[in-house]
Amino acid sequence: DTAVSQTPKYLVTQMGNDKSIKCEQNLGHDTMYWYKQDSKKFLKIMFSYNNKELIINETVPNRFSPKSPDKAHLNLHINSLELGDSAVYFCASSQEGIQAFFGQGTRLTVV
Amino acid sequence: QKEVEQNSGPLSVPEGAIASLNCTYSDRGSQSFFWYRQYSGKSPELIMSIYSNGDKEDGRFTAQLNKASQYVSLLIRDSQPSDSATYLCAVMNQGGKLIFGQGTELSVKP
């Protein structure tokens, strides 16, 4: 059983489109995250939810909107995609400061 | 100052040598520290966690934490070519944010 699963794994889309990435964890963790990893491999936190409540909202364009319908799911919706949004997006979950488990990543390419 | 800082490398060591990876962090109240390994095209995987000052050993890996100096390190003994990857230092700060350094690329030459 995959602990943290993201879909889709690859996403190629045109500028200006709207797209969503879904994430689910079956670990029973309370906290979920979205990270963006750029071409230089730097993992930058975007959002964090604890029990469906947004607790961390970094300086991210408001075209990015996370949604957590329950504590096992954290989705990321991106409006009006731009070339600079091309990156790998990772979902992760953790419990009370213990290690975070990562999904397999979604490679987003905006053309 | 970056919140979590690592030498970006690349760090190249011969097979069998000790690889030493270093990390500093800015939030003095941080309590949880992690080392992740990331192979190219894959997701980060946890290899070590450390929560108190001193050394923690797990097989060929030793994590060292010095909270007074705000310094975390990872030693890999008997380095193998399969250890070649990017190593990410991560720190959970007081606000519950898990922050990563920029990673150190390690290359182990046969």
Fold and architecture overview:
The complex is a heterodimer of chains A (111) and B (110). Helix content of chain A is 0%, strand content 57%. Chain A has 111 residues and is an all-beta fold. In chain A, the strands form two sheets. In chain A, strands 2, 4, 5, 6, 9, 10 and 11 form a seven-stranded mixed beta sheet that branches. Chain A has a four-stranded antiparallel beta sheet with strand order 1-3-8-7, with no helix packed on it. The radius of gyration of chain A is 13 Å and the shape is globular. The mean pLDDT of chain A is 92. Chain B is mainly beta and 110 residues long. Helix content of chain B is 0%, strand content 55%. Chain B has no helices and eleven strands. Chain B has strands at 4-6, 11-14, 19-25, 32-38, 45-50, 54-58, 61-66, 71-76, 85-92, 98-100, 104-109. In chain B, strands 2, 4, 5, 9, 10 and 11 form a six-stranded mixed beta sheet that branches. The mean pLDDT of chain B is 94. Classes of the chains: A mainly beta (111), B mainly beta (110). Chain A binds chain B through residues 31, 33, 35, 40-45, 48, 50, 55-56, 90, 92, 94, 97-105, and chain B through 31-32, 34, 38, 42-46, 49, 86, 88, 90, 92, 95-100, 102-103.
